[in-house]
Design goal:
Blueprint (H helix, E strand, L loop, with lengths): L6 H13 L13 H32 L9 H31 L6 H24 L5 H26 L1 H24 L4 H23 L8 H17 L1
Helix pairs in contact: 1-5, 1-6, 2-5, 2-7, 2-8, 3-4, 3-7, 4-5, 4-6, 4-7, 5-6, 5-7
Amino acid sequence: MEHYVSIWPVLALALIHFFGTRLRFLGGVPRSIWLSAAGGVSVAYVFLHLFPELNEGQEHVQRVFPGEGFLRHHVYIMALLGLAIFYGLERTVVTSKQKRQAKEGKEETSPGIFWVHIGSFAVYNALIGYILFQREEGTLQQLFLFSVAMALHFVVNDFGLLEHHREKYQHVGRWVLVLAIFLGWATGYLVELSHTLIVLVTAFVGGGVILNVLKEELPENRKSRYWAFIMGAAAYAALLLSI
């Protein structure tokens, strides 16, 4: 695949951060069927395409880091770590909002928690940007499928971050995330990670995707559309299984 092909999905993801939260019809309660469907697509991609791909990469990782017992499952440990870290971040943000609302009557996080949260998602975006660059070594189909799943995932993330941080996300946070994905992509030209590290990074992102989707769908007050989530997951699963 020619170089610079991956810049197009990177630009698309950046535009989502620019304009995603302006799509007002996606906000509010009950949860938009489009956001639920987008979450279903992202999860379907992780389980049916990303994890099977990582299973193949696990063999390579085992050769580099041989071990017994739980150390034989390095890739899945990284996926679990990604899920656990983002779960911890979500709990920290929710707790911060509750405490600030009780003390100051403000339904938003403290400035410190805001920067920790946005900084974590900036790293997450940078890793996705780097993975997009690395996908140039594969087929155009692989790049397209990953890009579509991440684009819809970014829409879900945008509305989650906007709900947590409100004006701070609109004025500052989304710009940080845009910069991060470009920096992650550009790093691909400067730093060539080993195949082992790329597999582990991708596993970490996969775990983060699962948590970041489910945390938006599961809270009862969101009134999520389960049927839309299932339809999105089923449709993308059918596409992935047919090619």
